[in-house]
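User: Predict the structure for this protein chain, please.
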Amino acid sequence: MLRRRFQAMGTQIELVLDTRPSATAFRALAAAEADLRRLERFLTRFDPHSELSRLNELGTMVVGPALLEVVELALDARQRTRGRFDPTVHNALVGAGYNRTFAQVPRNSDAPPEAPARCAGGIRVDGETSTIELEPGVRLDLGGIAKGYAADRAAAILAQAGPCLIDAGGDIALRGRPWPVGVETSDGTLTLELSEGGLATSGRDRRHWTRAGAEQHHLIDPATGRPAEGDLLRVTVAAASAAEAEVQAKTLFLAGASAALEEASNDAVVLVTRDGRTLLAGALA
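Assistant: Here is the predicted structure, written as structure tokens:
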């Protein structure tokens, strides 16, 4: 079993390749790491020179294939989830205090949150010219879906050398054989056995901070432009890809426990409520 760990996309990345050491295996690990780092340079909102930051600044731009594909994935997700998943939450995140990398966000600040920012902004994509046009004032945040997309890409690269698992700060993509994956619950750890696809968790218990005595977190409800209020602490979803797992986890988190139990697809879903209950849905119900 070969492993490679490094920091990228604002989190710890681990690549696992189930094969013997060889030149082919080491080339695959190096290629997967290089692709993750390359995607970070395009898709992060925290680097003013990234392609995403330049699009947010200019409003209209011809973009490269990676940014174009992730924006198209995000827009498709927004339509399918009736706006619960929304890539135009950038301004709301900044207003809540998430205006720099999470490691740099003050955990306690006297500054109050800003007024709610409008979400559901307009985005026009022209696939033929690779042009993205944002409605005036709209800026994109692609954090979760970009991380899932990058993990899926890395898995596709590594799978050419053998069964593999990519853990990008909890966004997991895997290929090639059954892998045991631990999911944190209110009672301990639930182990799922997954062979293909991805897994992601959305929750308010990891990336949170306080402003003027009010707790803030990074999961914005597009309907209010504020960090989501609800009865769920976190949601974990296994799906056909890590990017799709990200979409479903965020969507079910915003739905709340009762609606999430009804709306969960046939994929494995684990809900942990704020009052300490663990609920299983979808394929686990």
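DSSP finds seven helices and 18 strands in the chain.
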